[in-house]
Amino acid sequence: MTNFQIHYGEQVTRARRDGRPVVALESTIISHGLPHPDNLRVAREIEQTVRDNGAVPATIGMIGGELVVGLDDRQIEHLALAEGVAKLSVRDLAVAAAKRADGATTVAATSAVAAAAGIGVFATGGLGGVHREANVTFDESADLTTLARTPIVVVCAGVKSILDVGATLERLETLGVAVAGYRTKRFPGFFITDGGFDVDWQLDSPDEIADVMRARTDHGVGAGALILANPLPVDEQLEPALHDRTLAEGLALLSRGGITGKAVTPFLLSHFHASTEGQSLAVNVRIILRNSALAARIAAAHTPAPAPVGFTA
Ligand code: PSU
Ligand code: MN
């Protein structure tokens, strides 16, 4: 990600100058993951949550071929409401830039751009991963391979339960991506609290995660991301029976409709949102807001307190 020109929004420019904590946010959840018009309201709530928890939000996306770190409200509104906003993974960035396209960045593209911009913490809903039947389709999200070479903390609720959770954890191990649970050793399944697998590490506070970030810089080993899995409380998850039924229907519709490639994730998410009458949407929003709050607290814990006014070193 070197040499790619980045345009910084006004508030992020100021935060960088003043050494204030910044949290990266992705735009694919806005354009492709959440239904209109809730997506615009949620995008604003995510940013406000980051502010309320002590950091400056940097929503990342592409406008007219320019990579923007810290989209302003008008640009977020455009990516939320315009038709034909492209879904951009890392491989798409150069082509989209040359075409002066408008695009929303995935976890992969957002983390690559954020790390290039020197941002250490990123909040999202759920990572992409290994799809069910990937042994036949080879459908594995580029989120995984990108996180293998991107030094950033990604706060998420695990991987979406629409994926093969166990296979995704195996791939993360192979790729050298660290995985820790926040106050748990059970890996969450996005809409559901427990995705069915244990992870090796548990981290319990923003300070502890900031220590891991510093240790990584100090020791200089391993260039990959840290996935911090932050499960929903059990009483806030999507009811597991409703979840399983909706997922089975969605997967059947997927194969009947011949839907493949980058359309799979948006299709399954919108099936959930439509057929649970908004229950999965409410859960999805809670996930993102909780992760944004935690990410902001981690960024704040990792940023040295500013010197008092008038202080000169
Ligand atoms: N998690 C969500 N909603 C989303 C996504 C993740 O809760 O919309 C998006 C992210 O941008 C992620 C992408 O990077 O889906 C993964 O898409 P794919 O499986 O095509 O790589
Ligand atoms: Mn895919």
Which helices and strands appear, and what pairs or packs with what?
Blueprint: E1 6-8, H1 10-18, E2 22-25, H2 28-33, H3 38-52, E3 56-63, E4 66-69, H4 73-81, E5 86-88, H5 93-98, E6 103-105, H6 107-116, E7 121-123, H7 134-137, H8 142-147, E8 153-156, H9 165-175, E9 178-182, E10 186-189, E11 192-198, E12 201-203, H10 206-219, E13 226-229, H11 240-256, H12 264-275, H13 279-302
Parallel strand pairs: 1-4, 2-3, 2-7, 5-6, 7-8, 8-13, 9-12, 9-13
Antiparallel strand pairs: 3-4, 3-6, 10-11
Helix pairs in contact: 3-4, 3-13, 10-13, 11-12
Bound molecules: pseudouridine-5'-monophosphate and manganese (II) ion.
Pseudouridine-5'-monophosphate binds near residues 29, 32, 108 and 126.
Concise summary:
By secondary structure, this protein is an alpha/beta fold. The protein contains 13 helices and 13 strands.
Describe it for me?
The chain has 313 residues and is of the alpha/beta class. The protein has one domain: Indigoidine synthase domain (Indigoidine synthase fold, 3-Layer(aba) Sandwich). Helices cover 46% and strands 18% of the residues. It contains 13 helices and 13 strands. It has helices at residues 10-18, 28-33, 38-52, 73-81, 93-98, 107-116, 134-137, 142-147, 165-175, 206-219, 240-256, 264-275, 279-302; strands at 6-8, 22-25, 56-63, 66-69, 86-88, 103-105, 121-123, 153-156, 178-182, 186-189, 192-198, 201-203, 226-229. The strands form 2 sheets. Strands 1, 2, 3, 4, 5, 6, 7, 8, 9, 12 and 13 form an 11-stranded mixed beta sheet that branches. Strand 3 (56-63) and strand 4 form a beta hairpin. Helix 3 runs antiparallel to helix 4 and helix 11 (240-256) crosses helix 12 (264-275). Bound molecules: pseudouridine-5'-monophosphate and manganese (II) ion. The site of manganese (II) ion has 5 residues, from loops.
